[in-house]
């Protein structure tokens, strides 16, 4: 019995889609994990990785957080007559988390963006971030810093190789 409990606690995370551009365009302040309400054929399309979260954003509606702009392609074998690939989808969060997120996003310049979508133990989840948009000079500074760190790592690598040889 002890082995079965340990196995059920392990989390298997299968990333479906990620918004790599978000970390470049936004300064990430805090991240949250939320479930996402999907229909049956949307789940199948998501498992086939037919998802794009690049244009998606979160917004409050009637005290809940909804995800706009998430594109899930139509599943080929679906029986539904009308398929809305960009419909508004409900995010599943605890009431206290919703309140915290809404309080933060009411501040000027902060927005709610998805960073990645994944399946965890069979459940569709989305990683959300409260973020502030970067200005052009912030982006250039981040690129310069990354290049400098890369150059330092190369120099250290050469230096270490020279000692061994």
How does the major sheet shape up? 7 strands, antiparallel
Strand order of the largest sheet: 1-8-9-2-7-5-4
Rg over CA atoms: 20 Å
Number of helices: 5
Mean pLDDT: 86
Number of strands: 9
Question: What is the count of structural domains?
Answer: 2
- Reading the helices and strands in chain order gives HEHEHEEEEEHEEH
- Low-pLDDT stretches are none
Q: What CATH first level of the largest domain would be assigned? A: Mainly Beta
What separation lies between the terminal Cα atoms?
A: 54 Å
Beta-strand percent range: 25-35%
Give the CA-based shape. globular
Oligomeric description of these chains: single chain
Structural class: alpha+beta
CATH level 4 superfamily of the largest domain: Small protein B
Report the CATH architecture of the largest domain: Beta Barrel
Would you give the CATH topology of the largest domain? Answer: Small Protein B, Chain: A
Please give the share of residues in helix: 25-40%
Protein name: SsrA-binding protein
InterPro entries: SmpB, SsrA-bd_prot, SsrA-bd_prot_CS
GO biological process, one term: trans-translation-dependent protein tagging
GO molecular function: RNA binding
């Amino acid at each position: 019995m002890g082995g079965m409990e340990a196995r059920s606690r392990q989390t298997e995370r299968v990333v479906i889609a990620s918004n790599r551009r978000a970390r470049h365009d936004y300064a990430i302040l805090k991240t949250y994990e939320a479930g996402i309400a999907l229909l049956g054929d949307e789940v199948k399309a998501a498992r086939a990785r037919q998802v794009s979260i690049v244009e998606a954003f979160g917004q409050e509606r009637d005290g809940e957080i909804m995800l706009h702009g998430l594109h899930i392609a139509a599943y080929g074998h679906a029986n539904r007559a009308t398929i809305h690939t960009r419909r508004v989808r409900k995010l599943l969060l605890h009431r206290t988390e919703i309140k915290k997120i809404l309080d933060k996003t009411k501040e000027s310049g902060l927005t709610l963006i998805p960073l990645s979508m994944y399946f965890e133990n069979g459940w569709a989840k989305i990683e959300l971030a409260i973020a502030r948009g970067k200005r052009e000079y912030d982006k250039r500074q981040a690129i310069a810093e990354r290049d400098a760190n890369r150059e330092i790592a190369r120099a250290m690598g050469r230096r270490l190789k020279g000692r061994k040889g």
